[in-house]
Amino acid sequence: MYPSAFLAGLGAGAGLIIAIGAQNAFVLRQGLQRHFVGAVVLVCVLADISLILLGVAGMGLAVQQHPGLLQWLRYAGAAFLAAYGALALRRAWQGESGLQPAGNGSGSRGRVVLACLGFTLLNPHVYLDTVVLLGSLSTRYAGEGRWAFAGGASTASLLWFAALGYGARLLLPVFRSPAAWRVFDVAVAAFMLTLAALLLLPRAA
């Protein structure tokens, strides 16, 4: 029972976490710049694990019963993504991006961690995916099986963000070109601004 629950959680967590999102784009950029990668990976993993555990503990229903909170997160998240998208456009226009040694990139450790928390916690979908959906899936398993499921989902988060943050260095030869950074920042800006617009669109009835 426990191994099957763990593997189910691993697969479900991977399916939700690996989907391309603003948080993943941010982690990839930090990994490419080798800028506080450990702190970023740690924040993402700890936030995911905390939300997964809350979902398995039964907080998913509470989230569903407070749509006003998710509505507030939609607007805050849209504003955050739009601001980050505008910054990415400015970097592309001015050619400010590049490979920076750790500690000399864009912002202090505190600012990087705050930005990472913004990408993680101001996204209403993260609560629907981790707290509600994974929490609901865990109810298929009784007793300790639910926590084995949570362990699998948490392991997926750890493996993914570590691979994304530290594996980004494999792309470093490509990003030694300033032109590649411009293209990357334009793509990030378009992605962030599109996500911000989607968050503001009214939900279908």
How would you characterize this protein structure?
The chain is mainly alpha-helical. The chain has one domain (2-200). Helix content is 78%, strand content 0%. Helix 3 (37-64) runs antiparallel to helix 7. 41% of the residues are buried.
Lay out the secondary structure.
Elements: H1 2-17, H2 22-33, H3 37-64, H4 67-94, H5 109-121, H6 124-138, H7 144-167, H8 178-200
Helix pairs in contact: 1-6, 1-7, 2-3, 2-7, 3-5, 3-6, 3-7, 4-8
Organism: Dyella soli
Subcellular location: Cell membrane
Keywords: Cell membrane, Membrane, Transmembrane, Transmembrane helix
Sum this structure up briefly.
By secondary structure, the protein is mostly helical. Helix content is 78%, strand content 0%. The chain has one domain.
- Main β-sheet description: none
From the helix content, strand content and strand pairing, which structural class follows? mainly alpha
User: In the residues, how many domains can be counted?
Assistant: 1
Percentage of residues assigned to helices: over 70%
Overall, the morphology is globular
**First-to-last CA distance:** 39 Å
Q: Secondary-structure element order, as H and E?
A: HHHHHHHH
In total, how many beta strands? 0
GO molecular function: amino acid transmembrane transporter activity
Protein name: Amino acid transporter
InterPro entries: LeuE-type (IPR001123)
Transmembrane segments: 6-27, 39-63, 69-89, 147-167, 179-201
